[in-house]
Design a protein that fits this description.
The protein has 278 residues and is mainly α. The chain is built from 12 helices and 5 strands. Keywords: Membrane, Transmembrane, Transmembrane helix.
Length: 278
């Protein structure tokens, strides 16, 4: 007798890639990428934000843009005619009026970076002194939590998880993802690699990777940032399971959530909001 087995596993998915990528880096979608896509995703998630215009202009034109931004940041005026001449020379007299105009607009517009947690667009006025990644880091430390490496000083509203809790969270996140992307269907039902089947070193790497990301973004913030890659169905399933287990309660902070604050202010005004928080 023979047993028919249908494999619906995504290309490039394996145990090693699942444990090193699905939980610490993505958990929410990267496990279904191809081997090449996984490598590109890993590179993209670990790098700092690209400098504004890094993929839009040639290095020569970008150097002119950076020079004028630096001078403007020091209080010097933009001499547009001179800037245009320098841009045209940097283009090798091949760029055309449209490309020159685009470079001029890039000089006039302050460099910005978007926060992946709250979506706020952060301006970087002192472009020559502060990089976009530094500005983003400062914004996250000021508005969302303390500096990485200082987990004992989490800001109000950030829950601190024990290593045992992190292990359980990692297990839930992995197995939710595995059920979606690495399921093998047999006559007795679906089978997928269990969290317990991984070695202790593999599990520890995944847990520590998850810990670093939660310390930077908070658990819910991390899940929401990965939502575009994972999709709503998988993200909502993970959030639901974490809420059921008590790891992701609707609110665990003595402070109001943004939604609660907005509701109070709309009904009873700012005084009620401050009273509720105090």
């Amino acid at each position: 007798d023979t047993v028919s087995v249908t494999v619906t596993q995504e290309p490039g998915f394996g145990i090693s890639s699942a444990i090193s990528l699905a939980i610490p880096l993505a958990v929410l979608g990267l496990v279904c990428a191809t081997v090449g896509g996984i490598a590109r995703s890993m590179g993209g998630s670990s790098s700092s934000p690209k400098q504004l215009g890094a993929t839009e202009f040639s290095p020569e034109v970008q150097a002119v843009i950076d020079k004028w931004r630096s001078q403007i940041a020091k209080g010097e005026p933009l001499v547009e005619s001179e800037a245009r001449k320098e841009i045209i020379r940097a283009q090798g007299y091949k760029g055309g009026v449209g490309e020159t105009d685009r470079a001029i607009r890039a000089i006039k517009e302050p460099p910005t970076v978007k926060c992946p947690i709250c979506g706020k667009v952060i301006e970087v006025p002192e472009y020559d002194k502060v990089t976009r990644s530094e500005a983003l880091r400062k914004h996250i430390e000021d508005k969302h939590h303390s500096s990485p490496g200082q987990s004992e000083h989490h800001s109000v509203g950030e829950r601190v998880y024990s290593m045992d809790e992190l292990a359980e969270i990692a297990k839930i996140m992995y197995e939710c993802t595995a059920r979606k992307t690495a399921t093998i269907y047999t006559p007795t039902g679906p089978v997928y690699t269990k969290w317990e089947n991984f070695s202790q070193p593999e599990r520890e790497r995944a847990i520590h990777g998850l810990k670093e990301r939660i310390e930077r973004e908070g658990l819910r913030g991390y899940l929401e940032r990965k939502r575009p890659m994972a999709g709503d169905v998988l993200t909502n399933e993970i959030i639901s399971e974490l809420e059921v287990k008590g790891f992701l309660s609707e609110h665990h902070s003595p402070w109001l959530t943004p939604e609660q604050r907005k509701l109070l202010e709309s009904k009873w005004g700012g005084a009620a909001t401050r009273f509720a928080e105090e």
